[in-house]
UniProtKB/TrEMBL annotation, chain A:
The encoding gene: HMGCL
Predominant place of localization: mitochondrion
Organism of origin: Mustela putorius furo
Location of the protein in the cell: Mitochondrion matrix; Peroxisome
The name this protein goes by in its record: Hydroxymethylglutaryl-CoA lyase, mitochondrial
InterPro entries: Aldolase_TIM, HMG_CoA_lyase_AS, HMGL, PYR_CT
Keywords attached to this entry: Acetylation, Disulfide bond, Lipid metabolism, Lyase, Metal-binding, Mitochondrion, Peroxisome
Keyword Lipid metabolism applies: yes
One example GO MF annotation: hydroxymethylglutaryl-CoA lyase activity
TrEMBL record, chain B:
Organism field: Mustela putorius furo
Family: Belongs to the HMG-CoA lyase family.
Enzyme class (EC, first level): lyase
Record's catalysed reaction(s): (3S)-3-hydroxy-3-methylglutaryl-CoA = acetoacetate + acetyl-CoA
Name of protein: hydroxymethylglutaryl-CoA lyase
Residue ranges of every copy of the Pyruvate carboxyltransferase domain listed in the record: 48-315
Family annotation (CDD domains): DRE_TIM_HMGL
GO molecular function: hydroxymethylglutaryl-CoA lyase activity; metal ion binding
EC number: 4.1.3.4
Length: 293, 340
């Protein structure tokens, strides 16, 4: 479980205003896309080097300045805590997986049990008036089970949506997905959950993230998770890359004429800053192309 | 997302994952596993021809000059992967492109496998004759949709270059040698910026009209995005049938696969790529260049499209050339699969 904290409360843009025009025809895209920046959490968490809290805070500030409407930021909290709520979190996240084996290995329980735990958190959060975002892992494949059926993803997603998550982020955790599989999965999920409540979280382990994201947009998805500089490797494939780089995503969306509210130049600066702090090269191709090294 | 590290040790090894899970394994020509879902995205071609440009476009843009015997071995390895077209070298003056100075030796030295074609670049008649003398049976000519790029790159205007190509194409056709035409800067130019779809169409039509059997539309500096790809193709496809078109996308801004997917959705079924994503970008220092063949095959396999190419063998050829050139691969599939 993780808490979502926005660095500058006024930056938490009302979700209703960002709900995009949904379309089902191939070739048309939403007019606006909300980018959920996960670099400060998912990204940093999966990096070998650790950064200081002040560096993290500076990164979040720079990301905020770049215009990103949602910035995930936290340190990991043990599942034994119910506590984010007590700690004054403004938003809470629940994690489930579409794979039994992944759930077992990751959290030592079955999907059913993890759903029950999520339900408890959701009830507490709703009682406290705190919005909850849901994550579903392994939606396009699992490191243990291999293929994951779209029906299973739809089932799990439907359950946490009905428990009260305002948005569900569908994660291709190991980046094995390709556009056709993304389409099949989304078709199944969209039968159960409105597309406006869906987000995609694509990993770029096999270089497929942007193509997969493109297909999701073509199907009407208008919320995309990404990580500045493509921070975060993949724990399942040594040496592999992890998240989709926010800079590369913004480049594509901008080229498509889709509004994101993000200033690419400032975003690039944030990426340069954190890469220097981590002593690593950026995984963003846009950053590689524009920074004269 | 979620706690991870302790679970890693029990995971399938990545090689195992790739081999045993059909949706990312081989695509055997004409024999897709019936259990595998057929092409999930409607409107896609069933078969995609990959034109491998690593030995030419790739090595041409690498800083290191690769020894002739390594180039020959590299191409021989590629010939055994199932690739049906491998661009071998470029018969340009070694003053301009020292990386391709050994063009004749390479052309003579490779083993020409049956079922594989080995085109070479020929900028003019002189290059063409040298190519034929060295055993070439297919050639390519290289135009641009930008006047500035044409002047800076080949030292003449678009019109002058077309006249040169007319001579080459005429001679080639006289000898029954097929000619492929390239149009650079199809989605943007490092000097002029935006390039109109109309200009791309005009140049493409000219090359096609001369007798080129296929036109490869190149996003030379990788600035294109799915929207600009779509607009450009819509314009070109009014004049040239999609079956005679190919896309050559550079991954300088990470857009290549998204752009290629867009092209496939529009009916294009020939895609250029370079194993390991060889070749940087001469216009953006430190940037990447060609789209990696491995990553392209991965996507096409996942889409259930037939390519006839064995991903593992391509990865092995990629591993070979990267070690020879002493560089890390630009292919994400290769990065994920070979442990560091």
């Amino acid at each position: 479980m993780a808490t979502m904290r926005n660095a500058l409360p006024r930056r938490l843009v009302g979700l209703a205003s960002l709900r995009a025009v949904s379309t089902s025809s191939l070739g048309t895209f939403p007019k606006r896309v909300k980018i959920v920046e996960v670099g400060a959490r998912d990204g940093l968490q999966n990096e070998k080097n650790i950064v200081s809290t002040s560096t993290k805070i500076k990164l979040i500030d720079m990301l905020s300045e770049a215009g990103l409407p949602v910035i995930e930021a936290t340190s990991f909290v043990s599942p034994k805590w119910v506590p984010q709520i007590a700690a004054g979190a403004k938003e809470v996240t629940v994690f489930v997986a579409a794979s039994e084996l992944f759930t077992k290995k990751n959290t030592n329980c079955s999907i059913e049990e993890s759903l029950q735990r999520s339900d408890e958190i959701l009830r507490a959060a709703r009682a406290a008036g705190i919005p909850v975002r849901g994550y579903v892992s392994c939606v396009l494949g699992c490191p243990y089970e291999g293929k994951i059926s779209p029906a299973k993803v739809a089932e799990v997603t439907k359950k946490i949506y009905s428990m009260g998550c305002y948005e569900i982020s569908l994660g291709d955790t190991i980046g094995v997905g390709t556009p056709g599989i993304m389409k099949d999965m989304l078709s199944a999920v969209m039968h159960e959950v409105p597309v406006a409540a869906l987000a995609v979280h694509c990993h770029d382990t096999y270089g497929q993230a942007l193509a997969n994201t493109l297909v999701a947009l073509q199907m009407g998805v208008s919320v995309v998770d990404s990580s500045v500089a493509g921070l975060g490797g993949c724990p399942y494939a040594q040496g592999a890359s992890g998240n989709l780089a926010t800079e590369d995503l913004v480049y594509m969306l901008s080229g498509l004429g889709i509004h994101t509210g993000v200033n690419l130049q400032k975003l690039l600066e944030a990426g340069t800053f954190i890469c220097q702090a981590l002593n690593r090269k950026t995984s963003s191709k846009v950053a590689q192309a524009t920074c004269k090294l | 997302m979620g706690n991870v590290p302790s679970a890693v040790k029990h995971c399938l090894s990545y090689q195992q994952l790739l081999r045993e899970h059909l949706w990312i394994g081989d695509s055997v020509a004409g024999a897709l596993d019936p259990a595998q879902e057929t092409s999930q995205l409607s409107g896609l071609p069933e078969y995609v021809k990959i034109v491998e440009v690593g030995p030419r476009d790739g090595l041409q843009n690498e800083k290191v000059i690769v020894p002739t015997d390594i180039k020959i071995e590299f191409i021989n390895q590629l010939s055994q992967t199932g690739l049906s077209v491998i661009e071998v070298t470029s018969f340009v003056s070694s003053r301009w492109v020292p990386q391709m100075a050994d063009h004749s030796e390479v052309m003579k030295g490779i083993h020409q496998y049956p079922g594989v074609r080995y085109p070479v670049l020929t900028p003019n008649l002189q290059g063409f004759h040298r190519a034929v003398a060295a055993g070439a049976t297919e050639i390519s000519v290289f135009g641009a949709a930008s006047e500035s790029f044409s002047k800076k790159n080949i030292n003449c205007s678009i019109e002058e270059s077309m006249q040169k190509f007319e001579e080459v194409v005429k001679s080639a056709r006289h000898m029954n040698i097929p000619v492929r035409g390239y149009v650079s800067c199809a989605l943007g130019c490092p000097y002029e910026g935006t390039i109109t779809p109309q200009k791309v169409t005009e140049v493409s039509k000219r090359l096609y009209g001369m007798g080129c059997y296929e036109i490869s539309l190149g996003d030379t500096i990788g600035v294109g995005t799915p929207g600009s790809m779509k607009r450009m193709l819509e314009s070109v496809m009014k004049e040239i049938p999609p079956s005679a078109l190919a896309v050559h996308c550079h991954d300088t801004y990470g857009q290549a696969l998204a752009n290629i997917l867009t092209a496939l959705q529009m009916g294009i079924n020939v895609v250029d790529s370079a194993v390991s994503g060889l070749g940087g970008c001469p216009y953006a220092k430190g940037a990447s260049g060609n789209v990696a063949t491995e990553d392209l095959i991965y996507m096409l396999n996942g889409l259930g499209l037939n390519t006839g190419v064995n991903l593992y063998k391509v990865m092995e050829a990629g591993d070979f050339i990267c070690k020879a050139v002493n560089k890390t691969t630009n292919s994400k599939v290769a990065q994920a699969s070979f442990s560091t």
